[in-house]
Write a structure and sequence with these properties.
single chain; alpha/beta; 6-stranded parallel β-sheet; 9 helices; 14 strands; globular
């Protein structure tokens, strides 16, 4: 992870991470503000068993990190401090190095809520959240605070039960996920569909007027989003969440206002590969 000592090195870490669009988005922001000689943003694959070692190294040579799957929850014990909201959520997606002390934040929540509010009002809406990982935790936390009626559908029933109890919502077994037909909003936080083929729910349950949000991002859409579009549902691509949470990350670690249009353009101009925020 060595770099020029005068340049602040920022990373996105995950497993896998090679197709992440975060480096393009953040590097475009540096260029737009004329600070590309001060910052550089790279992707680094970090396997679960390597996480502790990478975090210890980061104290001396990393300015900030974006965190993606599968590290958003397991990252927390390695940090010196976790922001109150991230602590309540139980997941971190942003780490800032404050003179060797690593501080964890969560910008996924605000990024997801902004993505949703562009398209719909939230209060009292019924929401089906598919999955129970770090992104799901952030989204459910935000939805509950927006007074939504949330049900989690997860393949890991124990994890869903714990999350529902901690965040104040309902949960049920994965086999009942097609009950999402009754929901005003369906949010997929699972990796199902990243292969460009599978759907996390039956196609028949999606209907006109529903809001369908897939945290996986792709310029060409995911199978879920493409079906939703064909049914005249309101479609939200994970690229929107990636942009908004990335803008908040940028502002946290740079202290500068994020150049939204430059960051958005960088995402729109990259090759399309399905990835999860």
């Amino acid at each position: 992870m060595a770099t020029n000592s005068n340049i602040k090195l920022c990373l996105v870490i995950g497993d896998p991470v090679a197709q992440s669009l975060s480096p393009a988005m953040h590097n475009a922001a540096y260029k737009a503000l004329g600070i590309e000689s001060q910052y550089v943003f790279r992707a680094q694959q970090v396997k679960p068993e390597e996480l502790g070692m990478v975090i210890n190294e980061a104290r001396s040579n990393i300015h900030a990190m974006a965190v993606t799957i599968p590290h958003k929850e397991t990252m927390m014990p390695y940090l010196d401090r976790v922001d109150d909201m991230a602590k309540e959520i139980g997941a971190v997606n942003t780490v800032f190095n404050a003179k060797g002390k690593l501080i964890g934040y969560n910008t996924d929540c605000a990024g997801a809520m902004r993505s949703l509010k562009v398209h719909t009002a939230l209060e009292r809406k019924s929401v089906a959240v598919l999955g129970s990982g770090g992104s799901a935790r952030a989204i459910v936390y935000g939805l509950v605070n927006e007074k939504c009626l949330v049900t989690i559908y997860s393949r890991n029933a124990d994890k869903a039960k714990e999350m529902a109890g901690a965040l104040g919502c309902e949960y049920t077994v994965w086999e009942k996920r097609n009950d999402a037909a009754k929901a005003d909003i369906i949010i997929n936080t699972t990796p199902i569909g990243k292969d460009g083929k599978e759907l996390p729910v039956e196609e028949s349950i999606i209907h006109k007027g529903q809001v369908v949000f897939d945290v996986s991002y792709s310029l060409n859409g995911t199978p879920l989003l493409n079906v939703a579009k064909s049914k005249n549902a309101i479609v939200i691509n994970g690229l929107e969440m990636l942009l908004y949470q990335g803008m908040l990350q940028f502002e946290l670690y740079s202290g500068l206002k994020a150049p939204e249009e430059a960051m958005r353009k960088a995402l729109q101009n990259k090759p399309s590969h399905a990835r999860t925020v």
